[in-house]
Amino acid sequence: MPTEDKGDIKFTFLHLENRDYPALISTDTQNSLMKWSMKGRLNVHTFSFDENFMAYEVQTFLKVNFANYSNNSVTSVQKNLFTSNSVIAVVHGDGFLVPSKFELVVENVPCTFTSLNVFRKVRELTARSDGTIKRCYDDVIDSVLVSDELRKCLLDTDSDTYGMLTEDERNQFLFRIFKHLCLGGELCQSEDNIDVYIELVRKLYRDLISVQKNPESRELQIISRVYSVKLLENDKLVFPSAKEHPNTFAYTIVDPLKRNVILLYHVFGCGDF
């Protein structure tokens, strides 16, 4: 039987079933997600944990790590987020699977923006003064229909507007949420006005991210740690989906003070009606 080394770091996760996200559960948002073909495919869950989280321990925090096999026994066992029974049950309940053995791919996602200034630039580049998104000739990029200047700015690396945003701006979690909502699902009906996306991103970002005031500058600073995650089995993607797509994604958002972690993920496809 495997034995647990008491010196190992082991995180225990509890699903907070009553944790709500006002930005997502409102009637207006649910109608928008249905219109964008994301309803029922965009999932968010919160889990609490009792142990201290350190950024350098993120690999340990997110995955199981088996080591030192000897005589069919395991002398080091670390059972963490994606091997937690609580997390596995929730993901299965959403209709998706977490494999029993996997390789974890983690990307640190910058999350420092405390204003919506980046969207002023996007709005000026892709929309008219009233927010109406400019149209363009139809194209298909990464299996996504591009029929307006907003999607062109988000996906077309050869467009004039794509280069107007810096790599840091595009990598920021705030901008990623915006891009995900704009791309939508397989039967997405895009909005005519960019302000619809910006307003929902503002509310959702506030729900997902924790901030505190810097005691010296008195300015708000973000304390949440955001990671993009993928699970591979035999070098093949299995979570959040076995099929790669620009709008299939999974993020973990860790609040080290409240000791909560949010699992936010979406699988591209036909949403609920």
UniProtKB/TrEMBL annotation:
It is found in: Cytoplasm, Cytoskeleton, Cilium axoneme. It comes from the Eukaryota. Keywords: Cell projection, Cytoplasm, Cytoskeleton. One of its GO terms (cellular component) is axoneme. Pfam families: CFAP300. Belongs to the CFAP300 family. PANTHER family: CILIA- AND FLAGELLA-ASSOCIATED PROTEIN 300. Cilium- and flagellum-specific protein that plays a role in axonemal structure organization and motility. May play a role in outer and inner dynein arm assembly. This is Cilia- and flagella-associated protein 300. The lineage of its organism: Eukaryota, Metazoa, Spiralia, Lophotrochozoa, Platyhelminthes.
